[in-house]
Amino acid sequence: MEDKKIGFIEAFSIGVGGMVGGGIFAVLGLTISLAKGAAPIAFAIAGLIALVTVYSYVKLSLRYPSEGGTIEFIVQGFGNGLFSTLVNNLLLISYVIMLALYAFAFGSYGSALIFGSDIDWIHKALASGVIILFTVVNLMGSFMTGKTEDIMVFIKLAILIIFVGTCFFTIDPSRMTPDKWSDWVSIATGGLMIFLAYEGFELIANTARDVKNPQKNLPLAYYSAVIFVILLYIAVAIVAVGNVSLDEVAKAKDYVLAVAAEPFFGKTGFTIIAIAALLSTASAINATLYGGGRVGYLIAKLGELPRTFEKRVEHGYEGVIIIALMSIIFTISFDLQNISVAGSMGFLIIYSLVNLANFRLYKETGGNRFISGFGFLLCVSATLVLIGYNLLHNPQALISSSIVIGVVALFSYLYYNLAHRKGLSLYIDKNLGDDESSR
Length: 439
Fold this sequence. Notes:
By secondary structure, this protein is mostly helical. The chain has a single domain (8-429), classed as Amino acid/polyamine transporter I, CATH 1.20.1740.10. Helix content is 76%, strand content 0%. The protein has helices spanning 8-19, 23-35, 39-63, 70-78, 82-115, 120-139, 146-167, 184-193, 214-243, 246-251, 256-260, 262-265, 267-290, 292-302, 311-315, 317-333, 336-360, 362-365, 369-393, 395-418, 430-437. Helix 17 packs across helix 20 (395-418).
């Protein structure tokens, strides 16, 4: 049989590609508007939470290598019952929100590139159109291969690194002095609100079964991917803050990265960054539709993954359509801040539970309870800060998030009981179940 194992570079690319999707293009302006000159610190705060959480992912991935990824860890930590069903559906809706964020960014940059500004109806038409386009592509059975994704990751990173390297020469350091910072609560909240820009490293978990020499390559891939992206985001934030005034950020908040390229490259820089954003978000939409969203839908429907995992293509078609429709509704119904709050809150809750699962399974995983416990408390505290700040400054975002979580909880309860899913397997991935049976 042909060896289909992947090495460190491929696992690293999956993690980096998952994180550097459309998030940085969409939420950078939102972070600057909240943290002002301290935007790089805000990205560092969010990155710290991701880095601590990676520890639990490493330990759980090594002990429970499964294509079910995050949900497998939840099932092992809390059992395959109603609670895990709820968490899986929350993860699934979080992927829907990520699709909405990517589409929102695509619409913003597309409108700015074509018309020079963000025109609302053009923005929404482009955002809906790109989701429809890649839904059709998925239904036709054509999807980006691993090599294509590698190329897309390379293009995205190359443009961002060139952008950072060249635009450093035009920054104004006075825009980042402490007197230009927001208060610390706003700085921290700015980081938490864009925490979803770090979402994606958990995709490495879904490939854990196929990684060569996992004891070495999995930890290395996880940690190097997150650290690389933290440094990249901080550098991008420094360049953006140093090149764009707060007044310009207010006018071009949804496509501020393209504006930040203008001082060095002129209009050509705006065009290049805008095209990079379109390619990046389109790639992320296609990958999310085919990958995380489809897997989450299958687990929600079947309670487990088929032993022959290729069946997900055939059985996942209805899931792609449902997820796409929900994403379009989110995209045209909510603004960027509401989408960001809902997405960040969803992933903070999920990551807190993964940390708690590793805390509970420390004897199985060989994990340090202090680190996973600290990660759990960090994620919970971050969620509470995010809720508190928005309760005072943007209650509408909390209303939207509460409605989403409430609907997910109600659906999970009704579906779980109506489907009589009391006797589910102890493992999401049947292959993992086979491995455990032979231990």
